[in-house]
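Bumping my old thread because nobody answered last time. Still need a sequence for this structure:
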């Protein structure tokens, strides 16, 4: 992945952030907009717009209850909540679609997304439907096959970071075989969790205790043989020399493209 340079990095695609990013684009500044959940922020997604839509529907219903007082007879008025919410979401969609159009028109190049695949998949699909080419970059939440089920080809080129796949480690071979023999594919964080238990067990053996403080002290000072290889921890408790991979969604699969050292 090429490193991205920009003149301005805007965090949050709410009314504060997207207006700022659009204005920067208009001023010919190369802008990256970072958003962890949704385009439009509180205001467009859960605040001003959806609340006013639901309030207006509720007020209308309330008025109908008193219609006979001013000579209008209405019978059988009831609330179909599912329909009301669908109508509310369609209004939100119109507004956020408008924001995506503006981002497109003002050349926003990258959208960093910190939420889950359910919304992320929809956002990237809608971005492509509206011709917004900005690349979505995200964390491990998009490292899941369901992301592609939502996006289809619209997900092509989306970047997601994750740790290197430990299933390929020679230290993990026996454990991986054991999992597979039992019909379980040790994907995702499986082997990372396995390594955590291995490190903890070795630290407890060194400490000759399961007392949390003593085990923690042993964890801080030791080196442990795990399915990830030999690991030790720094003062903050992070694994020393940890690396990450940047993966790119390519034809429905995640392709590793760059290793990043911590
Ligand atoms: C129910 C309700 C009704 C409202 N009604 C009105 C109204 O009628 N009129 C009115 O003027 N105001 C109303 N508001 C207030 C309005 O929603 C806020 O003033 C407005 O959304 C603030 O905009 P913002 O861009 O500053 O923040 P937000 O809209 O909150 O946007 C911030 C964005 O930043 C993202 N973000 C946060 N941290 C990170 C991070 N670390 N990395 C990446 N992204 C991040 C969030 O996901 C979010 O999308 C209402 C609010 C609520 C809750």
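Sorry it took so long. Here it is:
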């Amino acid at each position: 992945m090429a490193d991205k340079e920009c003149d301005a990095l805007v965090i949050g695609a709410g009314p504060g952030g997207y207006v700022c990013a659009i204005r920067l684009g208009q001023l010919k500044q190369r802008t990256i907009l970072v958003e962890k959940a949704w385009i439009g922020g509180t205001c467009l997604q859960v605040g001003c717009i959806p609340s006013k839509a639901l309030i207006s529907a509720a007020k209308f219903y309330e008025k109908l209850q008193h219609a006979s007082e001013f000579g209008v007879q209405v019978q059988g008025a009831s609330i179909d909540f599912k329909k009301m919410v669908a109508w509310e979401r369609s209004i939100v969609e119109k507004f956020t679609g408008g924001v995506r159009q503006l981002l497109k028109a003002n050349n926003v190049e990258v959208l960093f997304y910190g939420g889950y695949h359910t919304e992320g998949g929809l956002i990237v699909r809608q971005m492509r439907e509206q011709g917004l080419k900005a690349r979505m970059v995200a964390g491990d939440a998009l490292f899941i096959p369901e992301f592609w089920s939502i996006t289809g080809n619209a997900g092509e080129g989306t970047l997601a970071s994750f740790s290197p796949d430990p299933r390929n480690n020679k230290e993990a071979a026996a454990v991986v075989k054991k999992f597979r023999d039992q019909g379980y594919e040790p994907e995702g964080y499986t082997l990372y969790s396995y390594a955590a238990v291995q490190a903890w067990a070795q630290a407890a053996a060194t400490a000759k205790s399961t007392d949390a403080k003593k085990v923690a002290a042993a964890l801080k000072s030791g080196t442990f043989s795990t399915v990830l290889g030999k690991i030790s921890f720094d003062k903050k408790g992070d694994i020393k020399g940890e690396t990450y991979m940047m993966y790119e969604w390519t034809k429905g699969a995640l392709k590793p493209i760059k290793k990043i050292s911590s």
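The two ends are 17 Å apart (CA to CA). Let me know if any region looks off to you.
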